[in-house]
Specification:
The protein is about 25% helix and about 25% strand. The protein starts with a strand and ends in a 17-residue tail after the last helix. It has seven helices and 14 strands. It is globular, with a radius of gyration of 18 Å. The longest helix has 15 residues, at about 180-195. It has one domain (about 1-260): 4-Layer Sandwich (Nitrilase/N-carbamoyl-D-aminoacid amidohydrolase), CATH 3.60.110. The chain is of the alpha/beta class. The strands form three sheets. It has a six-stranded mixed β-sheet with strand order 5-4-3-2-1-14.
């Protein structure tokens, strides 16, 4: 399986429409990839909360209501690739905003939409402006079952246990992770891979927006926690080939998931 992570520089001087066109061209250039992954909220910036309401996009049956979804569907179709298009600010028909990730098939059809469950901000920013998703989401790619999570979700291992229980073999995580917490990024991505015995594709943003320097350093980590590829701090195209069959082999060789006790059934009370 060939995965390409597009670590996008989210420059506040670049208009969202111009960035959409530029990113669509980058996606179209990835012919031959089995999966292309974009970062979290790349059209507007994960920390640019003042712009969330103005840049929110509806996601209905007609994708042309959302300029990002329409552009990414066309780019996936033109390149003939599966595309995890990162996330957008979604405005639900009933009014709430969500941080919503989109996955497109090579024919341009929308195959999954994951609303971020854990919102970051500690009573500020995303945590107050967006509603929380409620659904653990997987999507069946021809090569593997993809489990979807977004940025701050990385700090909540119980979500990844649920994704594993739902069959996930490759965990895909778009992010807008700040540079000042880069050490946490590396160790948490590796931890989620080791405990899940799954690949993790973690795609971050580059640059600085809303005064927050982004970490970059997108990662591809294997089921043993080995880093197969890592980007630098700037905008970069990161491509890596890996074998999804190693997930089942790893779980058979070291059957730690079989030995789980807590979380499988309510504990007995004394």
């Amino acid at each position: 399986m060939r995965a390409t992570l597009l670590q996008i520089d989210v420059d506040p001087a670049e208009k969202p429409a111009d960035r959409r066109a530029r990113v669509a061209a980058l996606v179209r250039a990835q012919v031959g990839a089995d999966l292309v992954v974009l970062p979290e909220l790349w059209p507007v910036g994960a920390f640019a909360s003042d712009a969330f309401a103005d840049e929110a996009e509806p996601l209905g049956p007609a994708l042309d209501a959302s300029p990002t979804a329409e552009a990414m569907a066309a780019a996936a179709r033109d390149a003939g690739v599966w595309l995890h298009a990162g996330s957008v600010v979604e405005r639900d028909a009933d009014g709430p905003l969500f941080n919503t990730s989109l996955v497109f098939a090579p024919d341009g059809s929308l195959r999954a939409a994951y609303r971020k469950i854990h919102r970051f901000g500690f009573d500020r920013g995303e945590a107050t402006l967006m509603a929380a998703g409620q659904t653990v989401t997987t999507v069946r790619h021809p090569a593997a079952v993809l489990g979807l999570a977004t940025c701050y979700d990385l700090r909540f291992p119980e979500l990844f246990r649920l994704l594993v229980d739902a069959g996930a073999e490759v965990l895909v995580l778009p992010a807008g992770w700040p540079a000042r917490r880069l050490p946490h990024w590396r160790v948490l991505v590796q931890a989620r891979a080791v405990e899940s015995q799954a690949y993790v594709l973690a795609c971050g943003t580059a640059g600085t927006h809303a005064g927050v320097e982004q970490a970059g350093h997108s990662l591809v980590v294997d089921p043993w926690g080995e880093i197969l590829a890592e980007a630098g701090p700037g905008e970069q195209v990161l491509t890596v080939d890996f074998d999804p069959a190693r997930v089942a082999a790893t779980r058979a060789e070291f059957p730690v998931l079989r030995d789980r006790v807590l979380g499988l059934a309510p504990p007995e009370r004394a």
